[in-house]
Structures are given as structure tokens and as C-alpha cells.
Design a protein that fits this description.
There is one protein chain. Helix content is 47%, strand content 13%. It contains 14 helices and eight strands. The strands form two sheets. Strands 1-3-5-4-2 form a five-stranded antiparallel beta sheet. A three-stranded antiparallel beta sheet has the order 6-7-8. Helix 7 packs across helix 8 (193-204). The protein has helices spanning 13-20, 41-51, 69-72, 77-91, 131-147, 161-169, 174-189, 193-204, 228-231, 237-261, 280-291, 294-297, 303-306, 310-321, and strands at 3-7, 31-34, 60-66, 99-104, 111-117, 207-212, 215-219, 225-227. It is α+β, with helices and mostly antiparallel strands and 326 residues long.
């Protein structure tokens, strides 16, 4: 069964590129890009964002599509890569967003990393994924799984289809698992605790009561209540506050990294047209030539990009796998 996980995009595009392209995790045959060179997607994402002057806020979306160890033994890495590419193409590529799909084979469960540029290469508009968009993405994944002979997540007719399925499989209360799934989803999108609370309340009809520094109570739309710590430590107030504070700290050096690239700003005038026949790669090359960045023309990365050390990669990995599971 394929499982989809949304991760927070705290790092710069170049930083996440360096992590997912490690030789011990993948190879060039398992790297594919849409309107972008899969082996250099991070820098090209940043150039497209600079082109449209959209270098602040969320710069990419990151998803992991993984298979169970049992399925890993029955399907080739190339087919898993094709599965992830097709899902990303239907969800993002057809809407005008660049993406890269990198398949990792270094664990007992083969998985795709899908990294999507948050800036549309035709219009410059930022991508915003809603819970409904994510549900549609899951439903599309189910169709693709069936076409590849893989088990799909049964559709319960509810927003969180896989939450109830897994809950029943493990003997858990379905409504509590629904809370966990929604909390996890909102956690990937909110940047502050207040935004987190408001999104749960107004988008999902989930109230937070008895909210103190030591914990809080979640109220399911059905009226059932549960303390955060009863759902798990990652759903309780202390952990949430620490996660949001850490995200704010991580975002600060990200802006410095962007500045070190020293990519010249581009005026809005004449940058893009409503009806352009140029591909995203052509736009990037034109901007590069006009601004004289020979390092990009030769396909070389600057030393600041190339020389990321082992400790930095380990920090990225820790952040990725402590993300919010869906």
C-alpha cells in the first residue's frame, strides 16, 4: 500500500536538493524532473522564484510517497519513480508547477521524494495546497496504485480516508485517528500556534479547549473530547509550541542562504507575459545569460552549494523525518 506524507518546507530548495540527491540513497536513473533538470532542481527553482520576485514565504512543497516492505520486494525502483512522477504530473505539472521526483532505495521500504516549486512557471502565482487538494491527491494516488497492481487505501467517504482504515487495522478509535490526521495536516501548513488553532476551528470544525501551557483538549466535530497527550506527545501543547518555535528559528538562516547566492533582482516590467511560448528552462537560461552567471551555464554548482558537510545533511534528514505524518 502506498502511503503519502507531507513534509514542512523549512530549508532552501538547494539544501533539500543536496539531501535527496545523495549517492548512497539514489542514482541518476531514479531522478526525474518536470520542466526542470532533476539533478539541479533546487537552483532552478530558486532562479524561477527570483524571476518572478517570489523568494519569500514557502518556496517548495515536499511529499514522500512510500511503499510497504512487502510491496518493495515486488516492484522495481523505476516503476516506483514512474508512479511518483505520474502523480506529481497530474497534481502539479498540469497546473504549471515544476517538480522533481527522486526515488530512494536505501531503506527496506522504497520511497519517492516529490519536491514541487511553489511558484508557477507560467504565471508566477504561488501554490497553496488546501486539505481538499490533498484529499484529491490521495484519491489520484489510489487510482494509480490500482493501475499498477498495488493495494489502494479504501475510501470511507470521509475527508481522512486512510486515517479510519489504519485505525481499524490497529484497533484504534477511528475518531481519534481522524484527529491525528487532521492535526498532522494542519501542522504542515501553519506557521504559528494561533494559526494552527484557527485553521482547526474554521476549516475543520475542531475546537481546542482547556488550553494551558501544559496541554489542551481537542473537541472532535462529533463532540467527543480528548486531551492532546492522550493522542500522543507530538499532538500536545508543549511539543507543538516547540515545533513552531523551531520552525521560526530555522527560517532565519534560510534567508541568509538565499542572499549568499547573490542572484540579481529582476524588475517586474517585461519579465513575464500572459501568453508565453517559452518553457521554464528557457526562461531560466535567458535570465542567466542576461545576468552573466557562467557557473550555471557550465552546469557547475558554487562552492557554497557543493561543500555542504555531513552534519548539515544529517540535520536536514532529522527535520524531514520528524515531519507531520498524514
Amino acid at each position: 500500500m502506498a502511503i503519502l506524507k507531507a513534509l514542512s518546507g523549512k530549508r532552501s530548495p538547494v539544501s533539500i536538493q543536496q539531501y535527496v540527491l545523495q549517492e548512497k540513497k539514489t542514482n541518476s536513473d531514479l531522478v526525474k524532473g518536470y520542466e526542470v533538470d532533476g539533478m539541479d532542481f533546487g537552483r532552478q527553482f530558486e532562479r524561477m522564484q527570483t524571476l518572478f520576485e517570489k523568494t519569500s514565504g514557502r518556496r517548495y512543497y515536499h511529499y514522500i510517497l512510500s511503499l510497504t516492505p512487502e510491496e518493495t520486494r515486488t516492484i522495481s525502483p523505476e516503476k516506483v519513480n514512474a508512479l511518483g512522477y505520474r502523480l506529481a504530473e497530474q497534481t502539479f505539472g498540469n497546473q504549471g508547477y515544476q517538480f522533481a521526483v527522486v526515488t530512494h532505495t536505501d531503506t527496506n521500504h522504497i520511497h519517492d521524494h516529490i519536491i514541487v516549486n511553489a511558484v508557477n512557471f507560467n504565471t508566477g502565482r504561488k501554490l497553496h495546497m488546501t486539505p481538499r487538494d490533498l484529499q484529491a491527491m490521495k484519491e489520484q494516488l489510489n487510482l494509480l496504485c490500482r493501475s499498477h497492481g498495488l493495494e489502494a487505501i479504501p475510501d470511507s467517504g470521509k475527508k481522512i480516508a486512510d486515517g479510519e482504515y489504519w485505525a481499524k487495522q490497529h484497533g484504534k478509535d477511528p475518531w481519534k485517528q481522524e484527529l491525528r490526521d487532521v492535526i498532522a495536516l494542519v501542522g504542515t501548513q501553519a506557521k504559528t500556534y494561533e494559526e494552527f488553532k484557527n485553521t482547526l476551528k474554521y476549516d475543520w470544525n475542531i475546537e481546542i479547549t482547556r488550553d494551558t501551557g501544559k496541554g489542551m483538549t481537542y473537541v472532535h466535530p462529533s463532540g467527543k473530547k480528548v486531551r492532546g497527550k492522550k493522542l500522543g506527545i507530538v499532538y500536545d501543547k508543549p511539543h507543538l509550541m516547540a515545533a513552531f518555535e523551531k520552525e521560526q528559528e530555522v527560517q532565519k538562516p534560510r534567508r541568509k542562504v538565499i542572499a549568499r547566492h547573490n542572484v540579481p533582482a529582476v524588475s517586474k516590467h517585461g519579465v513575464h507575459k500572459k501568453h508565453s511560448n517559452h518553457s521554464s528552462l528557457e526562461k531560466i537560461v535567458q535570465h542567466t545569460v542576461q545576468n552573466g552567471d557562467t557557473a550555471y551555464q557550465t552546469g557547475e554548482l558554487k562552492n557554497a552549494d557543493k561543500d555542504q558537510n555531513k552534519d548539515e545533511l544529517e540535520r536536514v534528514e532529522k527535520e524531514i523525518y520528524s515531519g507531520w505524518s498524514l
